[in-house]
Amino acid sequence: VSDPLAWLADRAAERSAAGLRRRLRVRSAGDGVLDLAGNDYLGLSRHPEVVAGAAAAAAEWGTGSTGSRLVTGSTALHAGLEDDLAAFTGAGAALVTASGYAANLAVVPALAGADDLVVSDAHVHASLVDACRLSRARVEVVPHRDVPAVDRVLAAGGYRRALVVTDSVFSVDGETAPVAALHDVARRHGAVLVVDEAHALGVVGPGGRGVVAAAGLAGEPDVVVTATLSKALGSQGGVVLADPAVVDHLVDTARTVIFDTALAPPSAGAARAALGLLAADPGLPLRARGVAGELAAVTRDRGYEVSPPEAAVVGVRVGPPERAVALAEALLQHGVRVGVFRPPSVPDGVSRLRLTGRADLGGAAVESFATALPPP
Ligand SMILES: Cc1ncc(COP(=O)(O)O)c(C=O)c1O
Description:
Strand order of the largest sheet: 2-8-7-6-5-3-4
Order of helices and strands: HEHHEHEHEHEHEHEEHHHHEEHEEH
Oligomer: single chain
Radius of gyration: 21 Å
Shape: globular
Bound molecules: pyridoxal-5'-phosphate
Strand content: 15-25%
Structural class: alpha/beta
């Protein structure tokens, strides 16, 4: 009998040859490494008030939510977090999910089905790609940030209902989407606009309220926002921010709401505390973006090709995957951790180093990075 898993070694060898092997890098507590790889944009994941929020939630509600949102997983803490998130972003209602991935998987299949059309930017996050596939709608992928292309696809008709989906800040290079123009087009065609603000919440827009708020679209009934609690809020979990009718529909129909254990109370408690800190200090997003700007500037001065940061993400194009891995390794030897994005995580096949601006870093950190960065 042949080994049913023998093909795995062949695939692994192919990935090795292409420079695309991944390995889980185990971090040690207190390793003193300067972290420019994580998504802790506001430096809140270890903030004493956020840690205390998690601990208090664990003490009051336990370590697990014990069930899905419809069974036992909707505590007063979840409801309070939802009220806070809706109030902060100006949304009509909020629904917290176990992850940002689950938020996207909730929204798209709940709002689009077999007779419908989803128009997606070519660079959306994998979770939106999967959400589109799960919806069974016809999916038309349009070029990156191409509003006229969205208009053409919607104008061609042949659908019952339509969604337009985009990230507001794209995760690889940190560029923003033309959300206001997309909304104009979507509204003209009676389509709903779905915006993933994972990298924008806490970083972009008035006081970190996101690109949708910056475009003056907070609370518009034909705009549905998803976000994660795992980046600027330093916790874990996701949220859908939408009209109350949409949230009602998700509670009745969305599979990742109905069949997934609800967000754990410590994560909800941490996110709530982090949101309180963000609301109290509108300077936090500015600082994160400022540090991103400084990281981009020193990297460009070194001779690298760098995306101009519009949020706190800095994408550094380095080309072959092996080169990206070698650069990240060299930086780690000097005590600096950066992200490495290789195919299929990059939209254009060009591997990148990915740096994150963090509100809790100062000039000394940027200098350490600049000193450690080898020439291109
Ligand atoms: C744009 C975008 N959307 C959604 C997600 C998923 O969020 P989560 O990690 O909370 O599942 C991520 C990254 O994690 C992301 O970058």
